[in-house]
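TL;DR need structure tokens for one chain.
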Amino acid sequence: MATNNRIVDTEQARDQLHKFIAGKNLPFTASITDGKHRTNDQNSLQRKWVLEISAQLGDRTPEEVRGYCKLHFGVPILRNENDVFKAEYDAVIMPLPYEHKLKLMMVPFDFGVTRIMTTRQKTDYLNAIHRHFSEQGLILTNPDDRKYGRAA
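>> reply
TL;DR here they are.
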């Protein structure tokens, strides 16, 4: 089963989506998520924090921190708000032991979590990361100073 995700943020993109749908053979399932796609500023802040967390903890690589964050903060957000994600995650990853779930969040597997988030979801994700690691005494770059994307 093929999945086609598109960001529709212009009239041209909307027209292209209409043409794509009109050309699909029946039956198919469609899903539409309201909101703007995550921003480059949000991605930059996430990368910065992953490096900061890894350096301060000293016992995890940046990729291990990224995988941990995706599993512990990103997955719950998407399972709550995205039925297609929930179905796929629950069928493929949910039954696995914790260690396997964590590995699937990291390269080379890199199960898609943050790449399908809206700006609001990514903001919630970043807030959860900041709260979690700040409560452990880590110091992360202040997101207000970075002016990362706001909810749309």
